[in-house]
Amino acid sequence: MLSVENATLHYGAAEALRGVSLKALGGRITCVLGRNGVGKTSLLRAIMGHFPLTGGEIVFEDKPFGRMATYDRARTGIGFVPQGREIFPLLTVRENLETGFPALKRSERTVPEYVFELFPVLKDMLGRRGGDLSGGQQQQLAIGRALVTRPKLLVLDEPTEGIQPSIIKDIGRAIKFLRDSQGISVLLVEQYLDFCRELADDIYIMDRGEVVHSGDAASLDRPDVRKHLTV
Fold this sequence. Notes:
Blueprint: E1 2-11, E2 14-24, E3 29-33, H1 40-48, E4 55-60, E5 63-64, H2 70-76, E6 78-81, H3 93-98, H4 113-118, H5 120-124, H6 135-148, E7 153-157, H7 165-182, E8 185-189, H8 193-199, E9 202-207, E10 210-216, H9 223-226
Parallel strand pairs: 3-8, 3-9, 6-7, 7-8
Antiparallel strand pairs: 1-2, 1-4, 4-5, 9-10
């Protein structure tokens, strides 16, 4: 579904990505792991068009993105949940969810019912301001907002960061549901090893802007693989 091919990315003279290649296959959960500062978030920002590649290309459903704008990438079927959630704190939960509407045809501008089935707290707090929610509730809202756009591929940047264990479990169940019942592919950047081991079909590990390992989730138990994740 998504193919990153020999991608390089620079911030000025600093090289954030060095010839990164990976694939997120249809109907599967792909997890990208690595220590802090190895290029994981830069990879997602490149996929979403926040920063232009300096080399290589990103292809979605056999169509190269090139210099396509971020909002046009969203319209092709990619939903993005950024690190830190980035909900609108002064808008209500309902209004936050409705910010996903512009990517849709007018006839489709509704919140899918399964969003409230996955995260019932959102339905209970539709009139509450986003900034009044807990961190875990804001993360659920950020995922719900991305799902409003009816994505074919959901891209999440460290959804467990700073979240209490009970909501981490809810998010894990939601990701499995999206793959198994909605046919949504998932590309997940994460540092929480057990979370990825439980969810991932395919994994990639990054170090210093490069992919240093790819394989299935079971390979995370190998010592030669885990060495890339230890501090």
